[in-house]
Amino acid sequence: MIITLMQNLPLLANILETSFTQASQRQLKPRDYDIKPSTLLYGGAKVGKSALALFVAKNYKKPIYVDATDWRLPLDALFKFLPSFAQDYGADLLILKHPPKDSPLPTLPTLLIQRDTSNTPEGFKQQAISPLSFSEFVHFCNKDPAALLARFLKEGNLPEMLALSSHEKMLKKQALFTLEFGAQTPLFKAILPFQAKSLSTNHLYTQLKKQLKISKDTLYRFLASLQANQMLLSIPTEKGYPKLYFYDFSLPYTFSYSHPLPPVFENMIALELARFFGLSTLTSLSSVLRIQTNQRAYCFLPLAFPTQEQLEYSLPLLLKKIPADPLFCISLNPLPFSCKLPCTLCDFLTFCLKILPTL
Question: Which listed residue, 44, 118, 237, 335, has the most CB atoms within 10 A of its CB?
Answer without folding.
Answer: 44
